[in-house]
Amino acid sequence: MSNPVHYIAVIGGAVSGSATAFQFASRGIKTVIIDQQALPYGKIEDGLPKWHSKLRDKEEGKIDERLAHPNITYVPNIRLGEDVSFEELSSWGFSAIVLATGAFNDRPLPVEGIEEYLYNGFYYQNPFFIWYNHFHEPGFDGLHHDIVDDAVIVGGGLASLDVVKALMIETVKEKLQEKGHDVDMFTLDRSIVKVLDELGYTLDDLGLKGCRLFYRRRAIDMPVTPMATDTPEKLEKARGIREKLLNNFTTKYLFRFYECHAPVDKIVKDGKLTGLVFQKTNVIDGKAVAIEGSEIRVEAPLVISSIGSIPELLEGIPSQWQMFKISDMNTCRIEGYDSVFAVGNAVTGQGNIKESFKHGNELSARIMDDSLDWKAENFEEYLKITESNVSDQAAEIANNFSDSNLLSVEKVAELDAKIEGLHKISGYSGDYTAWRNESIPVRLEDMLGIQH
After folding, report:
1. Cβ pair 217, 261 in contact under 8 A
2. What distance in Å separates the CA atoms of residue 48 and residue 436, rounded to the nearest whole number?
3. Residue 306 in contact with residue 263, Cβ under 8 Å?
4. Which residues contact 46 (CB under 8 A, 6 or more apart)?
5. Which of 97, 144, 441, 449 has its CA 20 to 30 A from that of 111?
């Protein structure tokens, strides 16, 4: 760089980080993306279930295209708070720091003492899907997760339906293999009941009960349809579609659903979590109200919590209610800082799905297909809206800068040297395409030799 410029550090890649960086880069702003993983794909790689392989490849391709911009530098394998502190990074003198760190932490399950049994009969959704998306890879050394029949999932949103689907696919696949039928995940993804009907089996024939999904509100309250509910007519329509969607899922994937059940206590035997105590609820004015004396014990060989995701809070960043504390909602400026911002799921966790559709409820007809099931194109629509919202926010942030506070050529060179130091720590050569090709995981569809 031979002229004074702005220089912005974006922490995190994926949809939000790459879209933000591309907005800045397109305006002539020098930008560095610092990601904690080898690849800048975030939940596209580790949260979107691997049966969405075409969508994954398409969205990751878009991220690759953005990172090819000459004004964008990539830094992999650097974790903020460990490899470099936020305090140190902010002292380097960037024009701005943008947190696009996503929402990789799970909202804690509100059962006292439950954390003591993590990986001892109890899992959270986010690490479960990191394992699920990658356990097929030769040499994968991530934390192992068992999949068993009759598990209990606590949730109610789309992510919990993905957990249910993964459990049902894997338990059915294993039992079919025992009977001499090699049916892959992609086939079962389309419809478990159809596969079983064609082979002449029921779950009982396979010795399976199916997993169980517990939700604290009613089926008609489940946050699985991005539809407007601001009039009684629209609310009634949305509730009808929610109920049909759930019925469609239970029919296709053969799990059991229990509405109006909130977890209140744990069941422990021989030092292991073996179930939960649920209390029945009534939904009054949209709130789940506990019914006194309605507690029931639900034994289970495994419990998975899927009640939402939250950002990983960082030392030095103000927070409240498990979220970063924001002072200006237009730019999502972090309270107490003039030039630190947050974008995407780093702002509101999975609640950002609702925000993404706030100005686009009319898209609901396109989001829901004829079978009332979310498919790849539905997730793609959501990602497009997320990208659009983040791009608008990045433009708003960029508008805060003026030519009067451009960084000098010397300061830019100093920051480049800092980035080069991070490259040495991470082992990154500076050639993004070569790095990406070396780091991309082995894909299940390639191992199976199928086109999905």
Report:
1. no
2. 19
3. no
4. 37, 104, 126, 129, 130, 133, 134
5. 144
* 307-364 tens-digit pLDDT: 999 988 888 888 887 788 888 887 889 999 999 999 887 775 543 333 333 322 332 2
Q: Across-strand partners of 287?
A: 284
Strands 326-328, 333-334: parallel, antiparallel or unpaired by DSSP?
A: antiparallel
CA distance 99 to 8: 11
Separation CA 284–CA 265 (nearest Å): 23
As a whole number of angstroms, the distance between CA 140 and CA 50 comes to 15
**Which tokens in the block code for residue 250?**
């239970």
Q: Hey, what are 384's tokens? A: 């497009």
CATH of domain 7-104+310-448: 3.40.50.720
Pick the CATH number of 108-307 from 3.50.50.60, 3.30.499.10, 3.10.560.10, 3.90.1150.10: 3.50.50.60
Higher pLDDT, 221 or 263: 263
User: Which residue type sits at 112?
Assistant: E
Q: Is the pTM here over 0.85, yes or no?
A: yes
Higher-confidence residue of 122 and 327: namely: 122
